[in-house]
């Protein structure tokens, strides 16, 4: 497992991992976005990935005087195409040796009202301070 | 040196399964959408309201288990009491006005639900909650 220094690192990793599953925005870019700001239009029915810009931060002290941030990156996939690519993407994400999960993914099945979607929380702790 | 220890009997039923499966009049099983959120087909986000996580944050399940085991000496009863405590905490999370919604709405029950609200409405989600013990 490797740290993600910023949301852009996670985006780059997921872009490569899901290169065959992600759709495209109307401008031709892979349909993966760090929010905020709002993503550009993606009118085609395809798979979209949205990453929350700032990780959830949980700071804990340890007996050695060090502090750890038990960070969690959050991203979600939305299947606007009603096809099997979200399932394939999910299998790839679960099989990744770089991603550790803080919680089981939250899956919402498709219905007449909503698209299929799934959210992941990636565990990515970092040390904030170290004793001399 | 001899060791005299009578270990407690291991419970037969060591899995607690919680189920919510409300169904709308048109046959839509909507618990996952309420819990996890999602994207509406006509645009817009459906905010998730993960009541099971809220319940886990609020319940002190290790202490509940330890207290009940001290009181009864039974792992099985301690487990069942802990599972029931989490069951109640989920009901509390569903009925608490702690969940955010983008705007005020009129519910099917006729209630005007404000932006800070519970997730009860007609009570179908709450009433569908079940706990099953398994091996």
The end-to-end span of chain A amounts to 26 Å
* H and E string of chain A: HEEEEEHEEE
Question: Helix segment count of chain B?
Answer: 5
**What percentage of the residues of chain B does DSSP assign to strands (E)?**
15-25%
Number of beta strands of chain B: 8
| Largest sheet, spatial ordering of strands of chain B | 1-8
| Outline of chain A | elongated
Q: Which spans of chain B have pLDDT < 50 for at least 5 consecutive residues? A: none
**Interface with most residues:** A-B, 14 and 17 residues
Poorly predicted tracts of residues of chain A: none
- What overall geometry of chain B do the principal axes of the alpha carbons give? elongated
Quick one: biggest sheet of chain B? 2 strands, antiparallel
- Lateral strand order in the biggest sheet of chain A: 1-2-5-7-6
CATH topology call of chain A:
Alpha-Beta Plaits
Distance between the termini of chain B: 37 Å
Describe the structure.
The complex is a heterodimer of chains A (132) and B (135). Chain A has 132 residues and is α+β, with helices and mostly antiparallel strands. Helix content of chain A is 17%, strand content 30%. Chain A contains two helices and eight strands. In chain A, the strands form two sheets. In chain A, strands 1-2-5-7-6 form a five-stranded mixed sheet, covered by helices on one side. In chain A, a hairpin with a 5-residue loop joins β3 and β4 (67-69). The longest helix of chain A is centred in the first third of the chain and has 11 residues, at 7-17. Chain B is α+β, with helices and mostly antiparallel strands. Chain B has helices at 31-36, 51-58, 61-72, 75-95, 124-127, and strands spanning 15-19, 38-39, 45-46, 99-100, 105-106, 112-113, 116-117, 130-134. In chain B, the strands form four sheets. A two-stranded antiparallel ribbon of chain B has the order 1-8. In chain B, α2 (51-58) crosses α4. The longest helix of chain B is centred in the middle third of the chain and has 21 residues, at 75-95. The A-B interface holds A 78, 80, 103, 106-109, 111-115, 117, 119 and B 26, 28-30, 32-33, 35-41, 46, 48, 50, 53.
């Amino acid at each position: 497992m490797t740290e993600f220094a910023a949301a852009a690192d996670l985006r780059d990793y997921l872009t490569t991992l899901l290169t065959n599953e992600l759709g495209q925005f109307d401008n031709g870019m892979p349909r993966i976005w760090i929010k905020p700001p709002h993503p550009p239009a993606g009118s085609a029915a395809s798979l979209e990935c949205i990453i929350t810009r700032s990780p959830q931060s949980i700071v804990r002290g340890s007996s050695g005087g060090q502090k750890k941030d038990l960070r969690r990156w959050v991203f979600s996939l939305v299947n606007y195409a009603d096809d099997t690519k979200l399932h394939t993407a999910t299998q790839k994400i679960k099989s990744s040796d770089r991603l550790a999960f803080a919680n089981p993914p939250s899956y919402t099945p498709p219905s007449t009202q909503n698209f299929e979607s799934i959210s992941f929380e990636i565990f990515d702790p970092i040390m904030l301070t170290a004793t001399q | 040196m001899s060791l005299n220890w009578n270990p407690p009997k291991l419970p037969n039923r060591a899995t607690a399964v919680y189920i919510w499966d409300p169904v709308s009049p048109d046959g839509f099983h909507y618990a996952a959408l309420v819990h996890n959120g999602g994207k509406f087909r006509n645009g817009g986000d459906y905010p998730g309201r993960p009541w099971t996580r809220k319940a886990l944050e609020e319940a002190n399940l290790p202490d509940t288990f330890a207290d009940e085991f001290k009181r009864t000496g039974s792992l099985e009863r301690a487990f069942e009491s802990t599972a029931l405590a989490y069951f109640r905490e989920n009901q509390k999370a569903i009925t608490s006005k702690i969940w955010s919604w983008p705007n005020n709405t009129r519910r099917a029950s006729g209630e005007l639900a404000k932006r800070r609200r519970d997730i009860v409405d007609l009570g179908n989600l709450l009433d569908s909650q079940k706990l099953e013990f398994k091996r």
